[in-house]
Amino acid sequence: MPATDSAPVALITGGAQRIGAAVARRLHEAGYRVLIHYRRSADSARALCSELNARRPDSARALCAEMSDVTAVQALADQALAQWQRLDLLLNNASSFYPTPIGGATEADWEALLGSNLKGPFFLSQALAPALTERGGSIINMVDIYAQRPLREHTVYCAAKAGLAMLTQSLARELAPAVRVNGIAPGAILWPEQEGDFSAQERDNILERVPLQRIGGPEDIARTVLFLADSPYITGQIIAVDGGRSLSI
């Protein structure tokens, strides 16, 4: 494990809970210092930092920002670089997800879903590109299998993730050769936090279309993040981690 002052640094947006927290733990175990971004989950972010710092002193810090606000995103980039004066990996994981049935979608829905899933990742990547270039680092964007095939009543979300998929490929070309940019498209990994988002029947229907016949776990995503971070000849790729579900959507 590298010495603390030479350990690589990763910024994980939406890193306080669920998939983000699993990734933070996996990267920390691999020797990274981690910056855990949160919007509202302050208690979870601080608890995770305490857990990781108990394992290795001064190896995790929490930062708060609203990802749909460009000024806040720039401030997040500045604060991230001020912590340990370097950045090796950016994981754009923060995401809003909820239905927007046609006829009921509002401009506020558009701003929230595009803001967290596309606008924030673009401006944060842009702000941190010089630091990542200096370190020969990488960006990993959390896309979705629904970026290619739509999910009913989630038009705005799907459009945002489709934009993030293209952003991944565009940045991979523009930031090469110094910075690699890849994406991960999760399938059925965790059900949404709001129980009503998918009925029991809808969940059964989803699992019927998963060839591996089971839901995945956050660790499946965390392992893929570490794989991409450690793969110096992979860029511009979006890896589906979905139990094969994208074969049958």
Structural descriptors:
about 250 residues, alpha/beta, seven-stranded parallel β-sheet, 7 helices, 7 strands, globular
Question: What would you say this structure looks like, in words?
Answer:
By secondary structure, this protein is an alpha/beta fold. The chain is 45% helix and 14% strand. It contains seven helices and seven strands. It has a seven-stranded parallel beta sheet with strand order 3-2-1-4-5-6-7, with helices on both faces. Strand 1, helix 1 and strand 2 form a beta-alpha-beta unit. Helix 3 runs parallel beside helix 4. The longest helix is centred in the middle third of the chain and has 29 residues. It is globular and about 50 Å long. The mean pLDDT is 94.
Task: Give the % helix.
Answer: 40-55%
Q: Which sheet architecture does the biggest sheet show? A: 7 strands, parallel
Unreliable stretches covering 5 or more consecutive residues: none
Topology, number of strands: 7
What's the Cα radius of gyration? Answer: 17 Å
Q: Give the neighbour order of strands across the main sheet.
A: 3-2-1-4-5-6-7
Span of the ends, CA to CA? 42 Å
SSE sequence, one letter per element: EHEHEHEHEHEHHE
Annotation field: number of helices: 7
Secondary-structure topology with pairs:
Blueprint: E1 9-12, H1 18-29, E2 33-38, H2 42-55, E3 60-64, H3 70-84, E4 89-92, H4 107-135, E5 138-142, H5 155-175, E6 180-186, H6 200-208, H7 218-229, E7 238-241
Parallel strand pairs: 1-2, 1-4, 2-3, 4-5, 5-6, 6-7
Helix pairs in contact: 1-7, 3-4, 4-5
